Amino acid sequence: MTGIADQGIVQSADQGKRVELNDVGHTFDPSGEDMLFRHLTVTLLPKHVYALTGPSGSGKSTLLSIIAGWVTPTNGTVERIGCSRVNWVLQNPHGVARRAAVDHVALPFIARGERRADATAHAMELLDAFGLTALAGKRFRDLSGGEAQRLMLARGVASGADLMLVDEPTAQLDLNTAATVNERLHALSMGGAIVVVATHDPRTRDACTDLIDLGDFQSDDREPDREPNDSTDRGEVG
Protein backbone atom coordinates (compact mmCIF):
# COMPACT_ATOMS: atom_id res chain seq x y z
CA MET A 1 0.00 0.00 0.00
CA THR A 2 1.18 3.51 -0.74
CA GLY A 3 0.30 6.78 0.92
CA ILE A 4 -0.95 9.51 -1.38
CA ALA A 5 2.30 11.42 -1.03
CA ASP A 6 3.99 8.47 -2.75
CA GLN A 7 1.62 8.53 -5.71
CA GLY A 8 4.05 10.35 -7.98
CA ILE A 9 3.36 11.68 -11.46
CA VAL A 10 0.24 10.38 -13.18
CA GLN A 11 1.30 8.51 -16.29
CA SER A 12 -0.17 9.48 -19.65
CA ALA A 13 -1.90 6.11 -19.99
CA ASP A 14 -4.05 7.02 -16.97
CA GLN A 15 -5.02 10.49 -18.16
CA GLY A 16 -8.58 9.44 -19.04
CA LYS A 17 -10.90 8.64 -16.16
CA ARG A 18 -9.86 10.28 -12.91
CA VAL A 19 -10.89 12.47 -9.98
CA GLU A 20 -8.58 15.35 -9.10
CA LEU A 21 -8.74 16.96 -5.66
CA ASN A 22 -6.63 20.08 -5.38
CA ASP A 23 -5.95 21.64 -1.96
CA VAL A 24 -9.35 20.51 -0.67
CA GLY A 25 -10.52 21.44 2.82
CA HIS A 26 -13.90 21.53 4.49
CA THR A 27 -15.66 22.84 7.56
CA PHE A 28 -19.22 23.15 8.84
CA ASP A 29 -18.16 25.98 11.15
CA PRO A 30 -19.66 29.30 9.93
CA SER A 31 -16.53 31.08 11.13
CA GLY A 32 -14.42 28.86 8.90
CA GLU A 33 -11.97 28.17 11.69
CA ASP A 34 -12.66 24.57 12.76
CA MET A 35 -11.66 22.69 9.60
CA LEU A 36 -12.41 18.97 9.38
CA PHE A 37 -9.43 18.55 7.06
CA ARG A 38 -7.35 20.81 4.85
CA HIS A 39 -4.76 20.87 2.04
CA LEU A 40 -5.78 17.50 0.57
CA THR A 41 -4.39 17.05 -2.93
CA VAL A 42 -4.68 13.70 -4.69
CA THR A 43 -5.55 12.21 -8.07
CA LEU A 44 -7.81 9.14 -7.91
CA LEU A 45 -7.36 6.66 -10.74
CA PRO A 46 -8.81 3.38 -12.02
CA LYS A 47 -7.05 0.15 -11.06
CA HIS A 48 -6.55 1.50 -7.54
CA VAL A 49 -8.60 0.90 -4.41
CA TYR A 50 -8.22 3.84 -2.03
CA ALA A 51 -8.66 3.27 1.70
CA LEU A 52 -10.06 6.40 3.34
CA THR A 53 -9.20 6.25 7.03
CA GLY A 54 -8.86 8.58 9.98
CA PRO A 55 -10.07 9.29 13.49
CA SER A 56 -13.78 9.39 14.21
CA GLY A 57 -15.10 12.80 13.25
CA SER A 58 -12.26 13.49 10.81
CA GLY A 59 -14.66 13.87 7.86
CA LYS A 60 -14.54 10.55 5.98
CA SER A 61 -18.23 10.61 4.99
CA THR A 62 -17.96 14.30 4.18
CA LEU A 63 -15.04 13.64 1.86
CA LEU A 64 -16.99 10.87 0.12
CA SER A 65 -19.78 13.41 -0.45
CA ILE A 66 -17.28 15.89 -1.86
CA ILE A 67 -15.76 13.28 -4.19
CA ALA A 68 -19.27 12.32 -5.36
CA GLY A 69 -20.11 15.95 -6.09
CA TRP A 70 -22.90 16.14 -3.53
CA VAL A 71 -21.07 18.65 -1.33
CA THR A 72 -18.96 21.60 -2.45
CA PRO A 73 -15.74 21.83 -0.44
CA THR A 74 -15.08 24.95 1.60
CA ASN A 75 -11.64 25.24 0.03
CA GLY A 76 -10.03 23.81 -3.07
CA THR A 77 -11.45 22.19 -6.18
CA VAL A 78 -12.63 18.77 -7.31
CA GLU A 79 -12.71 17.72 -10.94
CA ARG A 80 -14.28 14.47 -12.13
CA ILE A 81 -13.12 13.43 -15.59
CA GLY A 82 -14.83 10.52 -17.33
CA CYS A 83 -16.97 9.71 -14.29
CA SER A 84 -20.53 9.84 -15.59
CA ARG A 85 -21.79 7.06 -13.33
CA VAL A 86 -21.20 7.52 -9.60
CA ASN A 87 -22.40 4.90 -7.14
CA TRP A 88 -22.31 5.20 -3.35
CA VAL A 89 -22.88 2.12 -1.20
CA LEU A 90 -23.91 3.28 2.26
CA GLN A 91 -23.06 1.46 5.47
CA ASN A 92 -26.80 1.05 6.06
CA PRO A 93 -28.11 0.73 2.49
CA HIS A 94 -31.68 1.26 1.38
CA GLY A 95 -33.57 -0.90 -1.09
CA VAL A 96 -37.15 -1.62 -2.09
CA ALA A 97 -38.55 -3.56 0.85
CA ARG A 98 -40.63 -6.09 -1.09
CA ARG A 99 -38.35 -6.44 -4.12
CA ALA A 100 -36.32 -9.63 -4.43
CA ALA A 101 -32.55 -9.42 -4.17
CA VAL A 102 -32.02 -10.59 -7.75
CA ASP A 103 -34.34 -7.88 -9.07
CA HIS A 104 -32.29 -5.16 -7.38
CA VAL A 105 -29.24 -6.30 -9.32
CA ALA A 106 -31.06 -7.04 -12.58
CA LEU A 107 -32.61 -3.58 -12.82
CA PRO A 108 -29.44 -1.73 -13.99
CA PHE A 109 -29.03 -4.28 -16.80
CA ILE A 110 -32.67 -3.83 -17.83
CA ALA A 111 -32.23 -0.04 -17.75
CA ARG A 112 -29.43 -0.44 -20.30
CA GLY A 113 -31.74 -2.32 -22.65
CA GLU A 114 -31.15 -5.98 -21.81
CA ARG A 115 -33.99 -8.45 -21.98
CA ARG A 116 -35.22 -9.50 -18.56
CA ALA A 117 -33.98 -13.08 -18.95
CA ASP A 118 -30.48 -11.90 -19.85
CA ALA A 119 -30.50 -9.29 -17.09
CA THR A 120 -31.52 -11.89 -14.53
CA ALA A 121 -28.76 -14.23 -15.70
CA HIS A 122 -26.16 -11.49 -15.35
CA ALA A 123 -27.58 -10.55 -11.95
CA MET A 124 -27.27 -14.14 -10.77
CA GLU A 125 -23.60 -14.15 -11.79
CA LEU A 126 -22.98 -11.10 -9.63
CA LEU A 127 -24.94 -12.51 -6.71
CA ASP A 128 -22.75 -15.60 -6.92
CA ALA A 129 -19.61 -13.45 -6.91
CA PHE A 130 -20.75 -11.81 -3.67
CA GLY A 131 -21.88 -15.06 -2.05
CA LEU A 132 -25.58 -14.21 -2.32
CA THR A 133 -26.89 -16.90 -4.68
CA ALA A 134 -29.02 -18.55 -2.01
CA LEU A 135 -30.69 -15.21 -1.26
CA ALA A 136 -31.69 -14.36 -4.84
CA GLY A 137 -35.41 -14.70 -4.16
CA LYS A 138 -35.34 -13.13 -0.72
CA ARG A 139 -37.01 -9.75 -0.25
CA PHE A 140 -34.79 -6.83 0.66
CA ARG A 141 -36.53 -6.25 3.98
CA ASP A 142 -35.63 -9.80 5.04
CA LEU A 143 -31.89 -9.40 4.45
CA SER A 144 -29.41 -8.80 7.25
CA GLY A 145 -27.40 -5.59 7.25
CA GLY A 146 -24.32 -7.30 5.82
CA GLU A 147 -26.36 -9.08 3.15
CA ALA A 148 -28.06 -5.84 2.13
CA GLN A 149 -24.74 -4.06 1.79
CA ARG A 150 -23.26 -6.84 -0.33
CA LEU A 151 -26.39 -6.70 -2.47
CA MET A 152 -25.91 -2.98 -3.06
CA LEU A 153 -22.26 -3.61 -3.95
CA ALA A 154 -23.42 -6.13 -6.54
CA ARG A 155 -25.94 -3.60 -7.83
CA GLY A 156 -23.16 -1.00 -8.05
CA VAL A 157 -21.11 -3.37 -10.19
CA ALA A 158 -24.19 -4.00 -12.36
CA SER A 159 -24.62 -0.26 -12.85
CA GLY A 160 -21.21 -0.03 -14.52
CA ALA A 161 -20.09 2.67 -12.08
CA ASP A 162 -17.10 4.77 -13.10
CA LEU A 163 -16.66 5.92 -9.51
CA MET A 164 -17.60 3.60 -6.65
CA LEU A 165 -17.72 5.04 -3.13
CA VAL A 166 -18.16 2.51 -0.33
CA ASP A 167 -18.78 3.25 3.34
CA GLU A 168 -17.58 0.59 5.81
CA PRO A 169 -18.22 -2.42 3.53
CA THR A 170 -16.93 -5.06 5.96
CA ALA A 171 -18.12 -3.69 9.31
CA GLN A 172 -20.89 -6.29 9.61
CA LEU A 173 -19.13 -9.24 7.96
CA ASP A 174 -17.20 -12.29 9.12
CA LEU A 175 -13.59 -12.81 8.03
CA ASN A 176 -14.30 -14.97 4.98
CA THR A 177 -17.13 -12.81 3.67
CA ALA A 178 -15.09 -9.65 4.24
CA ALA A 179 -12.25 -11.15 2.22
CA THR A 180 -14.67 -11.89 -0.63
CA VAL A 181 -15.93 -8.30 -0.63
CA ASN A 182 -12.37 -6.94 -0.65
CA GLU A 183 -11.53 -9.19 -3.60
CA ARG A 184 -14.58 -7.97 -5.53
CA LEU A 185 -13.69 -4.33 -4.90
CA HIS A 186 -10.22 -4.98 -6.26
CA ALA A 187 -11.69 -6.75 -9.31
CA LEU A 188 -14.03 -3.79 -9.86
CA SER A 189 -11.08 -1.40 -9.86
CA MET A 190 -9.16 -3.57 -12.31
CA GLY A 191 -12.21 -3.44 -14.56
CA GLY A 192 -11.78 0.32 -14.87
CA ALA A 193 -13.64 1.81 -11.91
CA ILE A 194 -12.23 4.26 -9.38
CA VAL A 195 -12.92 2.75 -5.95
CA VAL A 196 -12.76 4.67 -2.66
CA VAL A 197 -13.52 2.83 0.58
CA ALA A 198 -14.08 4.55 3.93
CA THR A 199 -13.14 2.02 6.59
CA HIS A 200 -12.13 1.43 10.19
CA ASP A 201 -11.33 -2.22 9.43
CA PRO A 202 -7.56 -2.83 9.28
CA ARG A 203 -8.14 -5.89 7.05
CA THR A 204 -9.94 -3.80 4.45
CA ARG A 205 -7.42 -0.99 4.78
CA ASP A 206 -4.56 -3.40 4.16
CA ALA A 207 -6.35 -4.95 1.17
CA CYS A 208 -6.46 -1.56 -0.58
CA THR A 209 -3.70 -0.35 -2.86
CA ASP A 210 -3.51 3.25 -1.60
CA LEU A 211 -4.15 5.04 1.67
CA ILE A 212 -5.70 8.45 2.35
CA ASP A 213 -5.47 9.05 6.11
CA LEU A 214 -7.45 12.15 7.04
CA GLY A 215 -5.61 12.19 10.34
CA ASP A 216 -2.70 13.59 8.33
CA PHE A 217 -4.81 16.50 7.05
CA GLN A 218 -6.26 17.79 10.31
CA SER A 219 -6.21 21.46 11.21
CA ASP A 220 -3.61 22.52 13.72
CA ASP A 221 -6.34 23.20 16.29
CA ARG A 222 -8.11 19.83 15.88
CA GLU A 223 -6.59 16.78 17.55
CA PRO A 224 -9.17 13.95 17.56
CA ASP A 225 -8.10 10.69 19.12
CA ARG A 226 -6.47 8.26 16.73
CA GLU A 227 -7.89 4.79 16.38
CA PRO A 228 -5.94 1.65 17.28
CA ASN A 229 -3.75 0.27 14.49
CA ASP A 230 -3.78 3.61 12.68
CA SER A 231 -1.67 3.61 9.53
CA THR A 232 0.80 6.12 10.96
CA ASP A 233 1.76 3.47 13.50
CA ARG A 234 2.78 1.27 10.55
CA GLY A 235 4.98 3.89 8.91
CA GLU A 236 2.53 4.87 6.16
CA VAL A 237 2.97 8.30 4.64
CA GLY A 238 -0.06 10.56 4.18
TrEMBL record:
A Pfam family annotated for this UniProt entry: ABC_tran
Region (Disordered): 214-238
Keyword ATP-binding appears in the UniProt entry: yes
Residue stretches making up the ABC transporter domain: 19-237
PANTHER family, per the entry: ALIPHATIC SULFONATES IMPORT ATP-BINDING PROTEIN SSUB 2 (PTHR42788:SF19), TAURINE IMPORT ATP-BINDING PROTEIN-RELATED (PTHR42788)
PROSITE patterns reported for this sequence: ABC_TRANSPORTER_1, ABC_TRANSPORTER_2
Keyword Transport recorded: yes
Alphabetized GO MF terms: ATP binding; ATP hydrolysis activity
Residues annotated as signal peptide: none
Keywords of this entry: ATP-binding, Nucleotide-binding, Transport
Bias (Basic and acidic residues) ranges: 219-238
SMART domains in UniProt: AAA
Gene3D superfamilies: P-loop containing nucleotide triphosphate hydrolases
Name of the protein in its database record: ATP-binding cassette domain-containing protein
